[in-house]
Structures are given as C-alpha cells and as structure tokens.
TrEMBL record:
<dbReference type="InterPro" id="IPR019734">
    <property type="entry name" value="TPR_rpt"/>
</dbReference>
<dbReference type="InterPro" id="IPR011990">
    <property type="entry name" value="TPR-like_helical_dom_sf"/>
</dbReference>
<feature type="repeat" description="TPR">
    <location>
        <begin position="29"/>
        <end position="62"/>
    </location>
</feature>
<keyword id="KW-0614">Plasmid</keyword>
<dbReference type="GO" id="GO:0008318">
    <property type="term" value="F:protein prenyltransferase activity"/>
</dbReference>
<feature type="repeat" description="TPR">
    <location>
        <begin position="138"/>
        <end position="171"/>
    </location>
</feature>
<feature type="repeat" description="TPR">
    <location>
        <begin position="63"/>
        <end position="96"/>
    </location>
</feature>
<dbReference type="Pfam" id="PF01239">
    <property type="entry name" value="PPTA"/>
</dbReference>
<dbReference type="InterPro" id="IPR002088">
    <property type="entry name" value="Prenyl_trans_a"/>
</dbReference>
<dbReference type="Pfam" id="PF13431">
    <property type="entry name" value="TPR_17"/>
</dbReference>
<keyword id="KW-0677">Repeat</keyword>
<protein>
    <submittedName>
        <fullName>Cytochrome c biogenesis factor</fullName>
    </submittedName>
</protein>
<dbReference type="InterPro" id="IPR051685">
    <property type="entry name" value="Ycf3/AcsC/BcsC/TPR_MFPF"/>
</dbReference>
<keyword id="KW-0802">TPR repeat</keyword>
<dbReference type="Pfam" id="PF13414">
    <property type="entry name" value="TPR_11"/>
</dbReference>
C-alpha cells in the first residue's frame, strides 16, 4: 500500500543555524555562513548555497554550514545533495536528532523517487537514531510509520503508528493511517474502529 502523502519537511520555515557561539569556527568560514543566512533571508537560495559551500570548503568540520545547506537542498527536492550535507552533519554531531531526521527524509525521498528499497531501509536506520535521541517526537514516529508502510512492513508500521497515538491521542491522521494498515492486514473490524475514531477527530472534514 502506498500512502497518499509524501513527507518532505516537517518544518516549513527553515531555521538557519547561527554559529556565533562557536569560537572554534574559522572566522572566514563563519563570515561565509553569515552571508548564506543573509542571502537566504532575501530568498536568494542559490547564492545562499554557494556561500555555505564556501564555508564548508574553508572549514569542512563546520556542521552548521552543512546543516543550512542541507535544509535548502531538501526544501528544493535536491535529495542527493541534501543527503551529502546531512551525512556530514551526523558525522560531526552524532547527537543531532534533527540532522538524523533530515537525513532520513533525504533517503526516504530518494527511495520514493527511485523505487529504492535500500534507501527506505537506510531511512529507517536514520530515524531510529533520531528516535533514540528524541523518543517523544511525534513527527519522527509519524515519518517512521510512512517509511515502514512504503516497505510493506505493516505490522511494524502499526506499532509505530501506535507510538504516534500514544504521544498525541488526538492525531486524526494517525488514527486513519492505523485503520488503513489494519485493513491491509484483513483486520476489518479493528480498521473500522480506527477510521471512525479518525472521523470523530475531524479527519476528512
């Protein structure tokens, strides 16, 4: 079963990182990152990416610049480029749950576009890392449900969907999704209960 939605970004507005608090960053790299932030604030995304690239050329360990660059690539659907950027971030900052999440989105969208099971499986690995760091994040579990569904792992997807509902019992989308997954497994009575619950919570209205 393929979901009707494709998760691209959970956060619509990109939160550009500021590295001013990191006195270990090369000053020239810091300057280029700040230029990238300014370009982005004016909607000059290509120029912003160029500035972030310059920052990472000067200081390849400048995680914030990689992160900023990756978010813009992800926003524009340049998933391969986004993956490279977030690979660098998680290598430099392995406890950055947001970077693991964005890495998972990059891989999942590559999997969606290319029909690559390997990419979807990689997305699960990245999501599990993010969840390990932020287990009560509803969005992480919701995304994991989607990816597991794309892999055809419906039982595991239901478990993930249950985590979403545990965190937010009023999530109508999650109740509806659980109903769809149960229906795929032939558990029609349980599926209908979930679908009814979703409607009561406003799904489809």
């Amino acid at each position: 079963m393929r979901t009707k939605r494709l998760i691209i970004l959970a956060i619509v507005v990109i939160a550009i990182f500021s590295a001013g608090c990191n006195d270990k960053v090369n000053e020239e790299a810091l300057s280029w990152n700040q230029k990238g932030n300014e370009y982005y604030s004016y909607g000059l995304d290509e120029e912003a990416i160029g500035a972030y690239e310059k920052a990472t050329e000067i200081d390849p360990e400048y995680a914030d610049a990689w992160y900023n660059m990756g978010e813009i690539h992800l926003e524009h659907g340049d998933y391969e480029e986004a993956l490279v950027a977030f690979d660098n971030v998680v290598e430099l900052e392995p406890k950055n749950s947001s970077a693991w999440y964005y890495k998972s989105l990059s891989l999942a969208n590559i999997g969606e576009n290319q029909g690559s099971r390997q990419s979807f499986e990689g997305a699960i690995v990245a999501l599990d890392k993010a969840i390990e760091l932020d287990s009560q994040n509803e969005t992480l579990w919701d995304t994991k449900t989607w990816v597991l569904t794309e892999l055809g792992s419906y039982e595991e997807a239901i478990e993930s969907c249950d985590k979403v509902i545990d965190i937010n019992p009023e999530n109508a989308d999650a109740w509806n999704m659980k109903g769809s997954l149960l229906h795929e497994l032939g558990r029609t009575e349980e599926a209908q209960i979930c679908k009814d619950k979703a409607k009561k919570l406003g799904y489809g209205s």
